[in-house]
Amino acid sequence: MSSKEIDRQLLHIYIEGNCSTDQLLQIKEYLTDEAYRESLHQFMQDEWELLSNAEFPALPGMPEQYAKFRFYLARRNKGITHEKVPVQGVRVRRMQVIAAAAAAVLLLIAGSWLWRAFVNRQPKELAAKELYFHNEPGHRTTVLLPDSTRVYLGAASTLRFKQATDGDRLVILEGQAYFEVQHDEHRPFTVTTGSITTVDLGTAFNIRYYPGDLNIEVAVTSGKVQVLHKGEKQLAVLEPGKRLAYDTLTQQYGVTALANADLAGAWRKGLLTFNRQSLKEVTDELQRYYGVRFQYTNPSAENILITTVLDNKSLEDALDIVTLTAGVPFTRQGTLIVLK
């Protein structure tokens, strides 16, 4: 059986009590599917290492908790389901206290009583909290917000979500994300990216703006969105197949038709398209997407224009296609790609 990787950020969100019901279903799968066992065990070990330098107050019942946790692991490894837990004679040193603290957290994760209690919470209790999501380069995730909006968060991207007291749903995005919004005319869904605010009017759309990018881009695949400057001046109302590009330097913008509306947000399915873009723009995208670094020995090569499509290609295949198209040789040293 092949192993599966857990979403560590999702586990932290759960421990903090910020999960939606659908996110809790994913947590339940982590705990019941043996394919996640190795990844979950590594997460536990890594958390213990982080806790090893932390200061903990004296807490009652730590010896018993630690004993229960150790016995729980031993029982799971041996396939034993029913035995009494020995708790006598446990000597607690500093590391054991730390492990016990981690154990208490993990026992909460596994506890069905907490599961039931959280699922039965009122939406207002959850809505009052701010959620934070971040992807490092080379990583992409799918996020289900408490309002059931699905977000495909791109590599090297950060998203913050908060539901205001009046019910408005507020998102701050840095990077790239594709939104499938659960529309509610009584609770507006707005995304702020730099000086541009995008207001959902019942739609699916893609937004892109990385630090250093010249343009903020908004593209719609279904429904429509309202695009505002600094939350006030309306720039456009975009319908399916339309794309707005806002120049952050000149504060000028333009609306164009997409050759293929399905390509907006196609990166979430592993499809990267480049149309007469500079090699530097292409490698910047690959750098985020695959989590590697590019270095040019000939700066003039950065301006070579290329057009290509990468459809679920491995890093090796992507490098071959891009460099052959550009006519630029390369060498690879681990995560460093040197273009000559």
Automatic annotation (TrEMBL):
Which parts of the chain span the membrane according to its record?
Answer: 97-115
What are the protein's UniProt keywords?
Membrane, Transmembrane, Transmembrane helix
Q: Key word Transmembrane helix present in the record?
A: yes
Q: Which InterPro entries match?
A: FecR, FecR_C, Ferrdict_sens_TM
Q: This protein's superkingdom?
A: Bacteria
Ranges for domain Protein FecR C-terminal:
272-337
What protein does this entry describe? FecR protein domain-containing protein
Which species is this record about?
Answer: Niastella yeongjuensis
State the taxonomy lineage. Bacteria, Pseudomonadati, Bacteroidota, Chitinophagia, Chitinophagales
